[in-house]
Amino acid sequence: MSSEGQSKAEHGYTGELAVLLTALRAILPSDSVLWEEEDLRPYECDGLSAYRRLPLIVVLPDTIDQVQAVMRLCHQRKVPVVARGAGTGLSGGALPHSQGVLLSLAKFKSIIDIDARNRTARVQPGVRNLAISQAAAPLGLYYAPDPSSQIACTIGGNVAENSGGVHCLKYGLTVHNILQLQIISADGELLTLGGAALDSPGYDFLALFTGSEGMLGIIVEVTVKLLPLPERAQVVLAAFDDVVKAGGAVGEIIAAGIIPAGLEMMDKLAIRAAEDFVHAGYPLEAEAILLCEVDGTNEEVSEHILKIHDIMQNCGAIEVRTAKDEQERALFWKGRKAAFPAVGRLAPDYYCMDGTIPRQHLPEVLRRIGELSREYDLPVANVFHAGDGNLHPLILYDANKPGELQRTEEFGGKILELCVAVGGTITGEHGVGMEKIDQMCTQFQPDELRQFHAVKDAFDPAGILNPGKAVPTLHRCAEFGAMHVHQGRVPFPELDRF
Amino acid sequence: MDKDLTAKLEAHVRGALTRSAPLRISGGGTKSFLGRAVEGEPLDVAGHRGIVNYQPTELVITARAGTPLLEINAALHERNQMLGFEPPHFGDNATLGGTIACGLSGPRRAYAGAARDFVLGMKLINGRGELLHFGGEVMKNVAGYDVSRLMTGAMGTLGVITEVSLKVLPHPASELSLVQACSIDDAITRMNLWASRPLPISATCFVGNRLYVRLSGAETAVASARRHIGGELVTDSPDFWEAMREQHHDFFAGAAPLWRLSLPPAAARVPLSGACALEWGGAQRWLRTDAAPPEVRRVAAAAGGHAVLFRGGDSDERFHPLPGALLALHRRVKQAFDPKGIFNPGRMYAEF
Q: Which residues from chain A sit within 8 angstroms of residue B321, using beta carbons?
């Protein structure tokens, strides 16, 4: 993790800065162009604060025309552009470029239209995720994806990262819940991807663009699908004395034909941290707990809750509780939702990983993480979107202790490589950004990376959009490989490769 | 019968590259009517078949592109699971690869998702003759661009799909269908009203002045929704939905051109002559009309959607034309995957 706080004069961009500033001020009101260090400081990082870097300039346009003009200018002058929403991302995707423009979409925050009959909302990219559901609630509708940062994160950022959330096993990710995007291409053209219908002519650029991490264009409008609010939701909490048994219960619930609205697992350290923090009533003697929520019609929920209760017991749960009312349901979830900050209280810093694995490998992966934890002498708490195999190990460390940050990063990298080795992926929902760029070399072969670069070139031939993120150069991978494959040995040689 | 022909397919593509010979990719040949005709050397993927991995508790199946859809459905059925997008087969020989390349979805689409929504990962051969793997077998994966979904519905113009991983769903515990007589305008209103309520609807169809609704889910939920929706019980429910999906229903008989209009679901009845059937809560509309193609496209666009000349008619333009800037982007993306333009040239649009 790097810190680049050097002044622009040291970089030698003073001349370019002056030219750019003049040109940008001709396009934007002067208070929408920031360049003094104290004004740039709030933009130096996103939710992954270990990576910090000042941009050359920050712009805050508030019309599509202004975004187009900024892009045309930057395209002409080959100036890098990094788009930013609320800056809650966890992979450094919105980390500024030191020679570039940081394009904040914070002023694009109006809900343009809610179409009750077609059950869609047309919103600007800076609208917060939760604000959409709040605006749709009077119509009995809501926007399903609910990343844990939903109070703050913006829909534009959600699209850029293809954000998930607790409910995505049943309701899907961002890509499953949007219909149309208005984007500004790298050379300043306004394009519509997708449409008001369920499909649109030509290639599925809507899907390609979702999760593309600001590499292919700037999102200036999003049309999302709205779903009817479920009649009822109910949650079961089950405690296990063994994570393997908890993992087994997850498989049995799915095998019984139930797709839970949410299915979350926490391990002992995470349970303790959450309990100390919010007093959710979690059983402290448990090695793992499962929170299983079902939603739907009243009858359906009752039927499924009974089944889930039985399955948990048959799978060896030491305790099974159904939330007796809405208040207790909220309390059960409060512990899970507060898990990250709760774990944050256990150490000065924590580092959140985001691998996804086929669920059947959970016991093996948790065992290896435990071994690595001892090897690196760094504690790990595990929080797991158990239904869809998305694992969030939280490594506890102290950035002020010399070398500990570096050890943490190395440990994190090992966890991601382990996820790939069991047939999973390095990122389930947080994105590659700057953080996992080296692990992309583990996940993909050179030909595949070359194909990604070809896609990027098709959208952004000059390479000005978020350069250096999401997809590593082959050169970078060669260096990374040389660093990590010691004596010709790949990581975890004892594991089958998928 | 399972056979891995990956190496042979790769060799064929590399050979075609050296000869600069365009390829016409085919599986079971059941959907060759769709899109524009392709001139090219046949590249037969049907022999490359077999289920590679099926983990019912992971909700994932992976199979080679040539695997018959019937074989996949049978394997899923055995474990009480199904393909959530309920794809049309259009013939017993339909393959998984062809189904995904065409990106077609059936009656459940508006309620469970489209083919692309269930695609988790894919192996493909690109136009440089390289075998590439994108996505995987996990539900959540945001590493790299979503090439697997881009390939879905690209009609084989970006590469040869050799293997696909799909999310699967449990078969609903209970299912029944109801029918009521009504006008097309009432049908549009009712379907959209139901969709705005938490009802366990898994399919809707308006055809021949009758509105059909399928309910799927927990037994008690289906029973309760039945009281809410009303209408007569459909006694041959599976047959009805299959007939609509496979276009065996009387509506699809005869020689009049068949248009598929994809519109916002609540869009009003379109001002075009000819019989009209609605599916997907009003979002998919079938039209038997002799109206001039530009007129059909104009009407569809004005209603906020697009039109595909699905079967028949004499127009060479089958898919809805793309606006200039978007067409240019299509060409660049085509170039990125298939620089020599050897895969199914012109199958979607004359320009690529």
A: 201
pLDDT over 70 at A13, yes or no: no
Using 50, 70 and 90 to split pLDDT, how confident is the model at B288? very high
B161 close contact with A: CB closer than 8 A: no
Residue type for B47, please?
A: G
Nearest to A269 by CA among A396, A364, A171, A156: A396
Q: Which of residues 20-49 of A touch B (CB under 8 A)?
A: none
Alpha helix (H) residue ranges in A32-86? 37-40, 64-77
Closest by CA position to B1, among listed B97, B55, B71? B71
The amino acid at A478:
A
Q: Where are the beta strands (DSSP E) in chain B?
A: 23-26, 41-44, 51-55, 60-64, 81-82, 119-125, 131-135, 160-167, 169-170, 174-181, 201-207, 210-217, 232-233, 258-262, 275-279, 284-288, 306-311
- Quote the ipTM score: 0.98
Q: Which of B55, B145, B148, B297 to mutate to test the interface with A (most CBs of A within 10 A)?
A: B145
Structure tokens at A408: 């943490």
Q: Cβ of A388 under 8 Å from any chain B Cβ?
A: yes
| Nearest in space to B183 (alpha carbons), one of B191, B194, B193, B175 | B191
The pTM of this model reads 0.95
Q: Examine the pLDDT at B79 and tell me if it is beyond 60.
A: yes
Does any CB of chain A come closer than 8 Å to the CB of residue B130? yes
One-letter amino acid of B142: V
CA distance A339 to A383: 8
pLDDT, residue A483, reads 56
Nearest CA in chain A to B336: A454
Is residue A402 packed enough to be buried (19+ CB in 10 Å), middle (13-18) or exposed (0-12)?
A: exposed
Q: How far apart are CA A420 and CA A373, in angstroms?
A: 18
